[in-house]
Amino acid sequence: MLTRDENCPAHNGRAGPAQRIASRPTPGTAPGAAVDRDEAVEFLELFHAENPHVGPLQPRIDEVMWEIDATGSYWHTTEELAFGARAAWRNNARCIGRLYWRSLQVRDLRKVSDAEGVAGHCFAHLQAAHNGGRIRPLISVFAPETPSRPAPRIWSEQLIRYAGYEQPGGRVLGDPRYRDFTETMLRHGWQPPEPRGAFDVLPLVVETAEEGARMFPVPGPAVHEVPLEHPDLAWFADLGLRWHAVPVISNNRLVIGGVSYPCAPFNGWYMGTEIGARNLGDRDRYDLVPEVARRMGLDTSDEATLWRDQALVELNRAVLHSFRANEVTITDHHTESRRFLTHLEREEETGRSCPADWSWIVPPMSGSQTPVFHRYYDDEGRTPNFFSDDDAVGRALRGGPPAFTAP
Ligand code: ARG
User: Which listed residue, of 6, 203, 314, 390, carries a Cα 20 to 30 Å from 177's Cα?
Assistant: First the structure.
């Protein structure tokens, strides 16, 4: 679970050229490149150390080295893949929800590499992850990057994202984060619902080297949403707000033992502040704090009345209350902070340190009221892990440019 979205100012847009030159190349295969043998060996050692029942290490290393010599890559066993995906979650320094990393369910879809197949399985993923409201952490792993064949890519940042339509005068109807993406989809013939609304689900975009980029409308039954209401403020429901139940991040690259899986959408469940404090609260997102404050009758003439803080709390209460009322799994930032420290202790007990990035772990409201605020963390990068590549981030926000030259 990532507590901040890619919008976090501390982590987005800062990777200027200077930083890129200075940083080491990210692990995992690039299109057309062979797997790094050291990365493969390091992973196999980890896998065998933590899973002694799978048998001796050396024969497996020999086999993998032979396969890399012959093909430039290697095929993970089902168990290696499942462990690798779970370890990638465990290693992800931005996620506060890692206590349950062992429970991640893995859909092995490595044989699927065509756009339609990817899209169809993504829609099935949404259903399986939603699970009638009892959200299951789930990852679908599609075809890997290999020297002979580039992996498919999903352009969309998540399987479900809301369109942002630029209005005359520069205001945006919907999610301003996806204004450019929406604009690109419209230019390429996407038919938005009539009339347009603030929560129109964008089409999923899947690109393959053979087919180029293709748009797939997300079918209704795959879109589970929660209408937002407030436990005490009756007018809140009139705002007509809602949010989708399952956050499935779809543009990160999973790297296991030197092999890249750029198409491996995964989900946990929401922490309320992701929606209430960031998606609905950020000024460059739905920016609802002033409207909520006005309806609450707060004195907005002076920052020192802390009207923003008061309104933000009510917005967040509405999110937690509505998910609960609809029996959709959600967690609050106090509970999740405590769980994270439990996770950290457990990791230390097993002799592992737990990489964590303070600026992502600390919740975006009431930070000092949560225990995760009052300490520092180890933040060394580890693999397996999920990587957010600059070009993939660009495609998710702008709807291009394509990863592959036109077929
Ligand atoms: N912050 C993102 C959003 O609001 C979701 C990131 C993943 N979150 C999670 N709980 N697994 O949509």
Answer: 314
Predicted TM-score of the model (pTM): 0.94
* 32/310 Cα distance (integer angstroms): 53
**Residue 12 amino acid letter:** N
Domain count, the chain: 1
Which residues are near ligand 1 (CB < 6 Å)? 1-2, 5, 158, 247, 249, 267-271, 274-275, 279
* Domain housing 142: 1-161+202-223+248-266
Q: What are 158's strand-pairing partners?
A: 249
Task: Looking at the CA of residue 1, tell me the nearest atom of ligand 1.
Answer: 11
Q: Residue holding tokens 């879109």?
A: 223
Annotated catalytic sites, by residue? 95, 98, 269, 274
What is the whole-number distance in angstroms between the Cα of residue 270 and the centre of ligand 1? Answer: 6
CA of 317 to the centre of ligand 1 (A): 18
CATH number (domain holding residue 127): 3.90.340.10
Query: What spacing in Å lies between the alpha carbon of 2 and ligand 1's midpoint?
Result: 5
What does the block give as tokens for 280?
Answer: 């609905």
| First and final C-alpha spacing in the chain | 36
In order along its 407 residues, the chain shows pLDDT tens digits of 554 544 443 333 333 333 344 445 789 988 889 999 999 999 999 999 999 999 999 999 999 999 999 999 999 999 999 999 999 999 999 999 999 999 999 999 999 999 999 999 999 999 999 999 999 999 999 999 999 999 999 999 999 999 999 999 999 999 999 999 999 999 999 999 999 999 999 999 999 999 999 999 999 999 999 999 999 999 999 999 999 999 999 999 999 999 999 999 999 999 999 999 999 999 999 999 999 999 999 999 999 999 999 999 999 999 999 999 999 999 999 999 999 999 999 999 999 999 999 999 999 999 999 999 999 999 899 999 999 999 999 999 999 999 998 66
275 CA closest ligand 1 atom index? 4
